[in-house]
Write a structure and sequence with these properties.
353 residues, alpha+beta, Immunoglobulin-like, Cytochrome Bc1 Complex, Chain D, domain 2, 3 domains, five-stranded mixed sheet, 31% helix, binds dinuclear copper ion
Length: 353
């Protein structure tokens, strides 16, 4: 186990515990070298010119210079090439960090003043700690119960704002075991500075053992199924396609046609909005009959419902959505969704994540 601390030691390459973090280091040092070299070259040239071409006689007139197309093109084109190169490099890294790989494991994070609540698909929960297996991409699906927070793990070079009323995501993959600082990086009230925790990267075997230790209530999706009945969702959302409300099988990641509106992708935020503010987007062909659940469902319960809806298989005969790895089964634990058939989950479009 290696600890990352903020001792004032100078580490040029810290040996960051994830591949993307190391790429960010290369980019950072490339920027430092290029910008440092240019700054130094200009400063030296300014000083040299000020001395070499200083006025020596009060009546001295400088010779007229006509300019040089070649010189001007050179000092325009070469820096343009260098800076465009840095831009493209940074853009590729940025997109890499925004798009979780398809086989990423979903972990849900709910932020509140002043703690981080973490829920795993298998049902295990924890507060202010995040345990992850080494070598597995982890996709964090995050929301806030109150104000804006920001999930920041410097060792992995990830920082993402966590907002109320919608889901944001960021992903990372640890490639060595260790214990790493987790911070809130957005001022969120008096105890903002205490909203800290640890990320534990563990060997797969240790992680499986850890995961199996504590999920007394069953998987997150099975908890979601319980809420699905408890809140009466099942009364209208039938799984035979004949209910008064849309059949939710295979919904996640699909395009949905809205009455008087465009099609939208049924992602986490859409499903959340449809539960809390059902009038915002009425699905074409259905009546505006769903009551709002705002104020009745907590963010933790919403996350469970989301996991349940994601785990619902596609309707028979429906176009098979692309399967992602984020099913409860991929943790090696049966989700225990009786009677509905959790045959995998639909994923968002690759570009949506
Ligand atoms: Cu949460 Cu600062």
């Amino acid at each position: 186990m290696r600890e990352f601390s903020f001792r004032p030691n100078l580490q040029f390459f810290s040996g960051a515990p994830s591949a993307i973090a190391r790429q960010y280091e290369w980019l950072f040092w490339a920027l430092v070298v290029v910008c440092g070299t240019v700054t130094l070259a200009i400063a030296v040239f300014v000083v040299y010119s000020a001395i070499r071409y200083r006025r020596r006689d009060p009546d001295e007139l400088p010779p007229q210079i006509q300019g040089s197309i070649f010189l001007e093109l050179t000092w325009t084109v070469i820096p343009l090439g260098i800076f465009m190169g840095m831009f493209v490099w940074g853009a590729f890294l940025f997109f890499d960090l925004q798009r979780a790989p398809r086989d990423a494991q979903d972990v849900y994070v709910v932020a509140k003043q002043w703690m981080w609540k973490v829920q795993y698909l298998d049902g295990r929960r924890e507060i202010n700690t995040l345990h992850v297996p080494v070598g597995t991409p982890i996709n964090l699906v995050m929301t806030s119960q109150d104000v804006i927070h920001s999930f920041f793990v410097p060792a992995f070079r990830i920082k993402q704002d966590v907002l109320p009323n919608r889901y944001t995501n960021i992903w990372f993959q640890a490639d060595q075991p260790g214990k790493f600082h987790l911070f809130c990086a957005e001022y969120c009230g008096t105890k903002h500075s205490g909203m800290i925790g640890w990320v534990y990267a563990m060997n797969r075997q240790d992680f499986q053992t850890w995961l199996a230790e504590g999920a007394p209530e069953g998987s997150l999706a099975s908890t979601g199924e319980k809420y699905f009945h408890q809140f009466g969702c099942a009364n209208c959302h039938h799984f035979d396609g004949h209910g008064p409300c849309p059949d939710l099988r295979g919904l996640y990641g699909r395009e949905v046609q809205i009455t008087d509106g465009p099609t939208v992708i049924a992602d986490d935020s859409y499903i959340r909005e449809s539960i809390l503010k059902p009038k915002a987007k009425i699905v074409l062909g259905f009546a505006d009959i769903m009551p709002t659940f705002e104020g009745q469902i907590s963010d933790d319960q919403l996350v469970a419902l989301l996991a349940y809806i994601k785990a619902l298989g596609p309707a028979p005969g429906a176009e098979q959505p692309t399967s992602s790895g984020s099913t409860p089964e991929s943790y090696g634990i049966q989700p225990g969704i009786g009677g509905v058939g959790a045959t995998g989950n639909a994923n968002t479009e690759p570009g949506v994540r």
